[in-house]
Design a protein that fits this description.
It is built from four helices and eight strands. The protein folds into two domains: 148 residues, no CATH class; 36 residues, no CATH class. It is 18% helix and 57% strand. It is α+β, with helices and mostly antiparallel strands. It starts with a helix and ends with a helix. The relative contact order is 0.21.
Length: 192
């Protein structure tokens, strides 16, 4: 066993430190993260009715509208990774882009955010774009991920077949004890 394996992850201490950093940092936070969603909203319309359209009536319907929905409030990014896939097959092109963020919110809470986008285009001109963003409280596994460096990997060439690249996979362990990676990331916001 190594020193790292023998060490204990003190999540409560890290969360207290995160709250202190959020209170004391002089670094301005990034704005909130939002995502575009389609929602049905009630709508009232007036229309002509009856013989020759001489009378009017009010009708309640629903309309689909695009709105910005908050995913996460103002925050500081502690770490960011990315992953990309390009696929070129007969008559179809797909591009997938993903970002993962480890963040500290202004209230001192720790979160991870996953943002992805997928574009598909067909040779007949049809196109589709899908995307989403989710945020969830930082788990112990995500905290431990910060103890490893980000291993960049790239396979194949752009424009031919399928190409992968990015740094979302963990590389070698770079800290001697569990939680040190998060602690160091938080310290950068204090200027230490």
């Amino acid at each position: 066993m190594t020193r790292y394996d023998d060490s204990a992850l003190d999540v409560a201490r890290l969360r207290r430190f995160a709250e202190r950093v959020a209170r004391e940092t002089r670094v301005p936070p990034r704005p909130e993260i939002t995502r575009r969603v389609t929602k049905s909203v009630p709508s009232t319309e007036t229309r002509r009715a009856g013989f020759l359209g001489l009378r009017t009536e009010t009708v309640t319907t629903t309309k689909s509208v695009q709105v910005a929905e908050p995913v996460l409030g103002p925050h500081w990014v502690l770490r960011q990774t990315h992953h990309h896939i390009e696929s070129h097959d007969r008559g179809k092109e797909v591009e997938y882009h993903e970002q993962n963020y480890w963040v500290l919110c202004t209230d001192g809470s720790l979160w991870t955010v996953w943002v992805w986008e997928e574009f598909t285009g067909w040779s007949d001109g049809t196109k589709r774009l899908e995307n989403d963003s989710t945020a969830e409280p930082m788990t112990e596994d995500k905290i431990l991920r910060l103890d490893f460096d980000d291993r960049y990997r790239e396979e194949r060439e752009h424009g031919r077949g399928t190409k992968f690249w990015g740094n979302r996979e963990p590389g070698r362990r770079v800290h001697h004890a569990k939680g040190v990676g998060l602690s160091k990331a938080l310290k950068t916001l204090l200027g230490d």
